[in-house]
Amino acid sequence: MKTKEIIEIADYLTSKFTLYKNQIVDFWDADNCAFGFSTEDKSILIYISTFNRKINHYYLEIDYQNADNEIFENISCNDLMKILQPIFEK
Description:
By secondary structure, this protein is an alpha+beta fold. It has helices at 4-16, 77-88; strands at 24-25, 34-38, 44-49, 57-64, 70-76.
């Protein structure tokens, strides 16, 4: 079962961005502190984790299909939103 904090951030992000159910992905079943989602065209995969982080701080990895991945360590919810907003509001 996913942790309360990862469920809360997943719910928050899905309320802020228009995400369809098929965009929510969880290739990390055994990782209770992580979840992911993709862009509608599946060209970008986003992985978010709360493991070993302060409350409301996250590990974010963005996997681009045709570009180098980006990794962000210990970012706040506000920073997370700023980073993800251009991806999901195209």
